[in-house]
Amino acid sequence: MKKCLVAALAFVFTLMTLALGVGFWGYNELNRFAATKLKLDEPRELLLKRGTSFYQLGQELQNQQLLEFDWHWKLWGKLYPQMTAIRSGLYQIEPGDTPVSLLERLVAGDEKTFTLTLVEGKTIREWQAYLQTLAHLKVSDKPFIDVLEAQGDSSGLPEGKFFPDTYQYRAGTELNTLLTQSFIKMQQQLESIWQQRDQSIPLKSPYELLILASIIEKETGLAEERGKIAAVFVNRLKKRMRLQTDPTVIYGMGERFDGNITRKDLREETPFNTYRIFGLPPTPIAAPGREALLAAAHPEAVEYLYFVSRNDGSHVFSRTLAEHNRAVNQYQRKR
Fold first, then answer.
1. Where along the sequence does the record put site: Important for catalytic activity (predicted)?
2. What is the CA radius of gyration of the chain?
3. N or C: which end of the chain has fewer CB within 10 A?
4. Picking from 21-35, 64-78, 210-224, which range would have the lowest pLDDT averaged per residue?
């Protein structure tokens, strides 16, 4: 009896030792699995369709030769069921990712993000060409007009009404959602700046401020010059002088513009040719940024009526036509 008891105890001890050994081995194997880097050298997109299960994900990762879909993956799901609650979407797998780091993102729904940058100084036509190049974005036939209509703007004139900025989105996002953010942001910025404007500027509405800001945006890329450029245009408006600014002529030419403006172009009667019309053109000619809006609302207190390019991005400002002509001769005609 005593021998049987000893034998039984020895058997149990052997089983326990074996179980502990197997458990220790399995624990080490799972830790090794969890820390093993996926087999890829460059970022790769992973699309998880709605309803994809944890086990289907393992099979997909094996199909992409990123890991072995074996007992490690299946046991990990059994031991950590919270890590099987993966969410659909488009994800980015990075070099250095492990099964666990990837699963953590999939469970959190930390999808890959993309950026849409609406650059200031660009037109709607230029933005539309750019939007066609973006990945994973749902673009309708006339997104800018659609947003205007949805926001109660029935003018059909989208130019300048969308705020230039960088917007984040995920795969499958509707472009109209981002453009709505841009439209609302422009309206908010414009209204705030209009309310705090210099009351002496000869503008009747926020829309006229937007138009003037678009011209300022196109005329200079130097931050320190915006206030002076704004002052020139405001001073000319006060004196009922034509603005005579080339960017408005170019805008009025549309797709005909080939990089050069001729005397014929300057004489052409278009609603945007400020060499022919008095006052502002009927719409903005591009998308102004916040700094251009501020410059239009708060021009510098200077008496300049003219400016000419130095051909290095900067300008020479003049109070009189004689001063201006001398600057033109020096920098444009090289006399």
1. 219
2. 33
3. N
4. 21-35
Same domain? For 216 and 279 the reply is yes
Does residue 14 lie within any of the structural domains? no
Instruction: Please report which helix (H) or strand (E) contains residue 137, including its range.
Output: strand 137-138
d(CA 110, CA 171): 12
Same domain, 150 and 217: no
Q: Give the C-alpha separation, 78 to 40, whole Å.
A: 26
Q: In the chain, how many domains are there?
A: 3
CB atoms within 10 A of CB 24: 10
**pTM of whole model > 0.90?**
no
Neighbours of 129 (CB within 10 A): 11
In a domain, 262, yes or no: yes
Identity of residue 199 = Q
User: In the structure encoding, which two tokens stand for residue 78, read together?
Assistant: 């059994």
Domain that holds residue 318: 198-331
pLDDT-derived band of residue 150, with 50, 70 and 90 as boundaries? very high
List own/partner pairs for 173-181 with CB under 8 A and 24 or more apart: 173/136, 173/137, 173/138, 174/138, 174/140, 175/116, 175/131, 175/137, 175/138, 175/139, 175/140, 175/143, 176/140, 176/143, 176/146, 176/147, 176/150, 178/116, 179/143, 179/144, 179/147, 180/147, 180/150, 180/151
Bridge partners for 176 per DSSP: none
Q: Are residues 177 and 234 both part of a single domain?
A: no
